[in-house]
Amino acid sequence: MNKPLLVLANVKTYYPVKTGFMNLKTDYIKAVDDVSFELMAGETLGLVGESGCGKSTLGRTIIGLEPLTEGRILFNGNELNFKTERVSLSKQIQIVFQDPYSSLNPRQTVGKLLAEPLHVHKIVAKNEVETEVERLLELVGLPKTAKERYPHEFSGGQRQRIGIARALALRPKLIICDEPVSALDVSIQAQIMNLFKQLQQELGLTYLFIAHGLGAVKYISDRIAVMYAGKIVEIGSAEQIFTNPQHDYTKKLLNAYPVPDPRKRSIVVQQGQNDA
Amino acid sequence: MLGYILRRLFIAVPVLFGVTVINFIIMKMAPGNPVDMLVSPKLPEAARQAKMAELGLDDSAVSQYISWMKNLLFHGDLGYSMITFQPVTDMIMDRLGPTILIMGTSLILGLFIAIPIGILSATKQYTKLDYFFVTGSFLGISIPNFFLSLVLVYVFAIQLNWLPSSGMKDIGTTGSVWTVLLHMVLPVIVLVANVAGRNIRYVRSSMLEILGQDYLRTARAKGLKESRVVNKHAMRNALIPIVTIIGLEIPILFGGAVVIEQIFSWPGIGQLTLSSIMSRDYSTIMGLNLVAAFVVIAANILTDIVYAIVDPRIRKSYLGASKR
């Protein structure tokens, strides 16, 4: 746990917006604005923040699905260059997407969609692809027969398991979980969270766990980073964030999180003090 | 699936019946009749009456329809033309080949142009190339067929004298493959401009919709090359709605053939349709209409079947329905 697996140094992801006469003036939407943190091997860093704060953009920037405007991303001590390495990087860093309904190609059977990365990256020999697909399905708690069916024949929770199996297919060290449970029923959320925990123990994975629900993050994270308007406003151990938050926004976020008994809330922000 | 197809065919029967009834009514409402068109106005009234009786035109409209229907149902016979006195079935069969030849060629060529251009246009959205293709397809749709035909005839047939402007063969010859091909060039260009123009837009918008889908992001996350993402994941999904469009394209071409065949004197169904309407050749009109209705219905059923083959989600629902 002493060597950082992933280091972000002043990462910025800006989207240009052209305005003014003849679109000459270029403005930027600063989706991710100067973010730096380190992620140790084997740990889980929770990333929380409200919708639109840039947490998903940050996740996608790390795997090269969004362009990195400025800053450096180091993985295992090597600086990443997405322009030349996007394809090979996918073996190291994988992502589980938020919406299990739309993120699986409806025309591929589960077997095919799991086998595709195995073929393309030559993870296993051709004649072993079949058994590898079955192993992956077993790993995420799906029956072997699932490989002959199409994604639309599964429930949300099962689809998310397929999404996780797909991410695991390339045997990555780091998995970015981009709100993997927020589209699921509450009862299913717990099952998927447990699956993430179990997989981490079995395979020694490192997670960057993005969520807007604090409950999920509290359950799985070693450390938590709080993001607001493209910046990380606070980062600390899960314990510290929940019991002794420093930043006003963190306090506000905790205050908005429903607890079984509101009278026992540990942090109380005065009404009106921080409301926008 | 088989049950579904049988059901669709079963529904097609009343549709075809309705088409013949409506067509018959409209035809009868139009002024004139085959005899007036055929014979000189100077003919004595008695001779005219005799001719009417001979063709069965002095019966009531209802009994005329019933006798036509009887003939069709019990003898599988569409009757004889009231003008040329040839069997209608033979006349249609003679004309079907040339029409299928130019329609099929235009459809296939049009799609071969439209699909790659549509996909390229979508993947390079808002670039100069995209604007060029979109403008081109807009031109293809907007230029009326007859106008483009006349321009092409003027330039290539009259001014340059490179290509023949009418017919399918040179007069007095049996027509080699080469001469038929030469005669096809101009009408096919006109139809292709239309088919390609329309379908570039369909393919492009369908592709754009798919390119925004989450599962393409997943495909990229798998570490696939961009070309594989576009060609395997995006294109295959984008072409599903295009199947429907192709099904609709067949009736459109069938209708478009009427104008094109007239302009280029192409000896096909369209030309026969127009000339039989002009001469009020009732039995031929009825026969042609039945064939046209049949083509449209067949194209629709075929589209649905192909749709089920290419989209697993739909296939499932069909299979579920046929088990009931």
Automatic annotation (TrEMBL), chain A:
GO BP field: peptide transport; transmembrane transport
SMART domains from the UniProt entry: AAA
Keyword Transport attributed: yes
Pfam families in alphabetical order: ABC_tran, oligo_HPY
Example GO molecular function: ATP binding
Domain of life: Bacteria
Record keywords: ATP-binding, Nucleotide-binding, Transport
Domain spans labelled ABC transporter: 6-254
Protein name, as recorded: Peptide ABC transporter ATP-binding protein
Organism in which the protein naturally occurs: Kurthia sibirica
From TrEMBL, chain B:
Domain ABC transmembrane type-1: 96-303
A single BP term in Gene Ontology: transmembrane transport
Subcellular location, record wording: Cell membrane
GO cellular component, one term: plasma membrane
Major subcellular location class: membrane
Membrane disposition: Multi-pass membrane protein
Name of the protein in its database record: Peptide permease
Transmembrane segments: 9-30, 100-120, 132-157, 177-197, 238-264, 284-310
Domain of life (superkingdom): Bacteria
Family: Belongs to the binding-protein-dependent transport system permease family.
Pfam families in the record: BPD_transp_1, BPD_transp_1_N
UniProt KW keywords: Cell membrane, Membrane, Transmembrane, Transmembrane helix, Transport
